[in-house]
Amino acid sequence: MEVLKIAQEWARAEVFSSRFFILFAILFLTASAGFWQLGKTELAKAYVIPLLVAGVLLMTIGLGLFFTNKVRITQFEKAFNQGASAFATSEMARAESTLKEYTVVLKVVPLIIVVAALLIIFINSPTWRAIGITTIAMMIVILLVDGNAHARIDAYYKQMITLVKQNDN
Asked: pTM of this prediction?
């Protein structure tokens, strides 16, 4: 039963975390609307589309994670009731796979930030500056949220390993 409790706690934490993507998406969309309505300079007007795109992307990520993990909470109980051992094994495999994905994400995102910074330095166009700055801001949000999610799933994976070993003994 401890395995189910830990899995559900992890999923609830992921639901909470996904709300931050949604919150930042709303901020990006609001900023886009603000630049659209109030922007007077060419640079201010150049932010409208990049902020809109970033907001939509963050909203998509946030809502996708929110609903996926919300459903997962109830699915965990059904899977656990069908077989606790099989549930724990499948969750360990899923967590391990997710950890590998996060490792890739946490290496690629900083590279995207570097490329966006180089855009700002070498291309002196308001549109490209806005794209570069917006990309950096969006990637920082992804690093903040995914960095915490990576730490959370790593702890979850280690807890699952510990519980499985305890149950085997």
From this structure: 0.89
